[in-house]
Amino acid sequence: MNAGELLANSLSPDQATRENATQKLEQASRENYPGYVHTLASELANEASPVFVRNAAGLALKNALTARDSARQAEYSNRWLSLDVKIRNEIKEFVLRGLHSEQVKAGTVSAQSVAAIATVELPQGQWPDLIEILLRFINTGTSVPLRQSTLSAIGFICEVLDPDVLSVRADEILTAVVHGARKEEASTDVQLAAMQALYNSLSFIRENFEREGERNYIMQVVCEATQSPSVQVQAMAFECLVRIMTLYYNKMAYYMERALFGLTVMGMKSEEEAVALQAIEFWTSVAEEETNLESDYLDAQEGLLDGEIEPPKYFAKIALPEVVPVLLQLLTRQDEDAEEGEWNVSMAAGTCLSFLAQAVHDPIVPAVIPFIEANIKQENWHQREAAVMAFGSILVGPDPTVLTPLVNQALPILINMMSDPQSQVKDTTAWTLGRICESLITSIKPDVHLHALVSALVAGLQDSPHIIANCCWALMNLADGLYELYDSSEEQNTGPLSPYFEGIVGALLQVTETAGNESNYRTSAYEAITSFVQQATPDCLQVVSNTALKILDRMEHLLNVQNQILGADDRNNWNDLQSNLCSVTVSVIRKLGVGIQPLADRVMTLLLQLIQSAGKTSTILEDAFLVIGSLSAAIESKFAPYIPAFLPFLYPALKAYDDTQLCTVAVGIIGDITRALGDQTEQYAQAFVTVLLENLSSEVLNRNVKISILACFGDIALAIGPKFEPYLETAMTVLRQAAALQANPLDYESIDYIANLREGILEAHTGVITGFKKTERAQLLVSHVPAILELVQKVLADDNSGEPLDKLAYGVIGDLADAFPSGELKPLLLAEWIGTSLVSRKGYDKETKTTIKWAREMVKRATA
């Protein structure tokens, strides 16, 4: 079978044919990579091949060069760069030839292949003439498909490459792209490709945007394109404006006044949905940008951010009188036949209104309320639903004191609307009630509103899936909000929801008995149950215990029927259910505490069966481990009998280097177990330390997992105290080596990582010092104190540390002084920097100040 037939078969509707072809292609890729990619490129350039085969060849070539995972991308890049130069050049000739194809689809996939190769080669200084070749195709080519495909190639390259790689040719690229995007361009296909390329290049033309003349020309071309006869070009032009606003907000005042206000409002009124959606998105991005800028500005005013930060230009507030009326009318353009998750102008308008409320605050209220009052009782359901959506969209942003009287007035109407004959109205009403419960819980008066509100939401649990999901969300917010509002101490025996607790949980459990999960409603019901369990007051604990029994029964039933699972959908459904059950079980254990003990045997038996049946399904393993961690924390030393049966499942998870999340959870379980067992951990300490050290030495394991491992040494030391002595030197050496790492001051990711690393190290030091403190073996720490204090000094001198890290550092100073009260560390503790640090008057919160005060007292005592 030749390559063309294989590629054609890889797209076959017949599953067996498709899988067979795919396997053979993968085999060819592994066994003869040079021949494989050369054949694909040749097939892509072959004008005699059917277009769908050429497309398959191009996509396979692109996929052989690009990967989302960075490690795999590095592997693919190295594999390509190790090819013979002659073969690479031939492949590049093929993909460039593909750009000339009169079949536009083949030209587009050729553009993707060109970009895939460019992504690998250009950063290495290879294929230096590529941009020149592409520019020549655009500037001298007469073929419309060639210019279109080449502009697409440039767009794809700009989208994925670091701007610095292309900075030398930025002016030429921009000139070619803008030239193709002009209204004078005869071909709308070329103009569209140019607009898409411009969109992708916007992040690397910062220097051009700094120059007023060039900026004016770019903006003129984009603004003119919003008036193109082509709907696609119009929509793409508005999409460019959205990105320009995000990237170059501070340069936009001139254009807002002269063009953008009018163009975007007119665009929102367009009958073409694609155009209207992007014009609405423009104002959503303006509002979002101004919300963030205002937040940064206020933080800077309070001294929480360094540097001079300008306030926003308040475009949204200025445009409110023109923009809001249009949005309110667009809310009435609901599509009652819309598919789940389908985006339309009505949804976009609601989202935009929500962002505007956060950006402009109180002024949104008088702009919207007249519309709500005029439409909420209209016979036309479109207007009723739009009124409720408008109300729900402005509940976050304005001052709660402005909104509370309105919510009090609206609640009875909204509760009544949960019985509306139109499902869309009920759905939006349930969502709005959920937002009230989430953001304005103080507006809900238990003696006035609660009975009717709970009754309406529970009745909604019998409705359609989407309404059920929103009712579950509203009930979850209600439980969380009322608990926070009324249950300020453990002494409180009852709460506002106590009379309804059993009924609500029972109704939610009934919802979860279904086999389906359309609109995620079953998952939403389990999440609501989890919240109710977490927020249960003492008078509801019996209901929590009964719920635990039902959840365990379901877990057991699922384990018994797993052999009946037939396909991938059934397996995914089974996995989702087990995850939901694990989440509820965690909340039950945390709520009951040691009261879970009578069920502990059953919980562990089921969890070990679940882990065994999960195989390599990491999400199930993570969920099961989290339940086990919660159980160990709840029953503490009584968890000991379960450890021998559990450890054989824990070690493979610790060795799952390629699964960062699972490995992190597994490391956390060691911490949970050591805290639960205390000094009984000694019998497992050597095994734990050994496996953790092996993990630290792995070159594959994610570096963030290694931070958790460092902190875990502290957990073990704290649990077994001086019995940690056999591992002390090794642990302290590892911690010292880690502390020597420095952040790249120009790399935010590096700064963040070093801060997290230091936090893990200081947590480990806290555990070790506390474990040895006030024991005969405390002297073993003395030789390590200079290195510990060196790290503490670095942390307190680093502006990037942040308060939580500073607090840990102050705590370590106090712990060391407390561990050696008789002057053993006096010369070290009298260092000038320590004295200065302990009288620091930074704007710390009360807890941190308490830690500093305690550390100061400990140092005073230890240096007396």
TrEMBL record:
HEAT repeats lie at residues 410-447. Residues 9-24 have a biased composition (Polar residues). Residues 21-101 form the Importin N-terminal domain. Its main location: cytoplasm. The keyword Cytoplasm applies. It is found in: Cytoplasm; Nucleus envelope. Residues 1-24 are annotated as: Disordered. Keywords: Cytoplasm, Nucleus, Protein transport, Repeat, Transport. One of its GO terms (molecular function) is small GTPase binding. One of its GO terms (biological process) is protein import into nucleus. Transmembrane segments: none annotated. InterPro entries: ARM-like, ARM-type_fold, Armadillo, HEAT_type_2, IMB1_TNPO1-like_TPR, Importin-beta_N, Importin_beta. It comes from the Eukaryota. SMART domains: ARM (SM00185), IBN_N (SM00913). One of its GO terms (cellular component) is cytoplasm. Belongs to the importin beta family. Importin beta-1 subfamily. This is Importin-95. It comes from Multifurca ochricompacta.
